[in-house]
Amino acid sequence: MGKLNEVQWEYVRKSLDAIDFGSVVITVHAGRVTQIDITEKKRFANMNNNHSLQNSK
Questions:
Q1: pTM here?
Q2: The pLDDT of residue 35
Q3: Distance (Å, rounded) from C-alpha 24 to C-alpha 16?
Q4: How many angstroms separate the CA atoms of 51 and 21, rounded?
Q5: CA–CA separation, 50 and 56 (whole Å)
Q6: Residue range 29-42, pLDDT digits in tens
Q7: Of 7, 13, 16, 38, whose CB is crowded by the most CB atoms within 10 A?
Q8: Is the sign of the CA dihedral 12, 17, 18, 20 positive or negative?
Q9: For the chain, which ranges sit under pLDDT 70?
Q10: Which of 17, 9, 7, 6 is nearest to 40 (CA)?
């Protein structure tokens, strides 16, 4: 089973604190943690700007 060392745990903790929406993926090969990926999603309110752009053409 893959185990995280203290440096890796700290990286995961800081990553989780820094994002509001997204994911943290820990990749394990041969029982060892080899990679940690952070994907952050930004969400914007739908302001219906497309309609105003169409009217200006």
A1: 0.61
A2: 92
A3: 7
A4: 28
A5: 10
A6: 998 889 999 999 98
A7: 38
A8: positive
A9: 1-2, 47-57
A10: 17
